[in-house]
Write a structure and sequence with these properties.
Elements (H helix, E strand, L loop, with lengths): L8 E4 L11 E4 L3 H11 L5 E4 L6 E3 L18 E3 L3 H7 L6 E8 L4 H11 L4 E6 L11 E8 L2 E9 H18 L6
Parallel strand pairs: 1-2, 3-6, 6-7
Antiparallel strand pairs: 4-5, 7-8, 8-9
Length: 183
């Protein structure tokens, strides 16, 4: 998006690589930080792409230090984190495009992605079958399905840069259909 001329803000956590040159980086080490920082900036964006795999749950009572090991059992209560996509959808600016990603595996993954698109009020959802070893997180290539209210389009296995370009092409098309151009 930056190479296409967009002003890009990356809200990131535990990044394994440096942010691209010319991209504003906002560090958000926890799911709560990511929600706060993203929601604070989203209203100024033409498009928001939420590619992060944010933790769905957090400890109800976090410890401030290490718990020493002993022979007693330990139970941890988990509570849901903020659903950032749902919050973005509830507070979206007019004409703003919201894009989510669904890393799914097993039978029914694409059906779950379709339901997620609707439940979270997204314009576009990128379905990624993470049950395969030849594509996805640790592979140099990917194969995804673009899911929108207008239908679905499979992007065949290709280098990740080509997949990203096709996703941005679709975002630009959606922005154009809303009468906006990416800024």
């Amino acid at each position: 998006a930056r190479r296409r001329g967009a002003d890009v803000t990356l809200v990131g956590s535990n990044l394994a690589v440096a942010a691209p040159e010319g991209v504003e980086l906002v560090e958000a080490p926890t799911a709560q930080d990511l929600a706060r920082e993203t929601l604070a900036r989203a209203s100024d964006a033409d498009a928001v792409l939420m590619a992060a795999a944010v933790a769905d749950y957090r400890p109800a009572t976090p410890l401030s230090d290490k718990r020493s090991k002993d022979d007693t059992s330990w139970q941890v209560e988990l509570v849901p984190t903020t659903d950032v996509l749902r919050e973005l959808s509830a507070h979206r600016a007019d004409g703003q495009i919201l894009v989510g990603f669904a890393a799914e595996h097993g039978d029914g993954g694409l059906d779950r992605a379709r339901r997620k698109l609707e439940a979270k009020g997204l314009d576009l959802l990128i379905y990624n079958d993470i049950g395969r070893e030849d594509v996805g997180f640790e592979a140099p290539e990917n194969e995804v399905v673009l899911v929108s209210a207008g239908g679905e389009r499979e992007l065949p296995k290709a280098p990740k840069a080509e997949i990203a370009a096709a996703i941005l092409d679709e975002v630009a098309r959606l922005l154009g259909s809303n009468g906006r151009t990416a800024r």
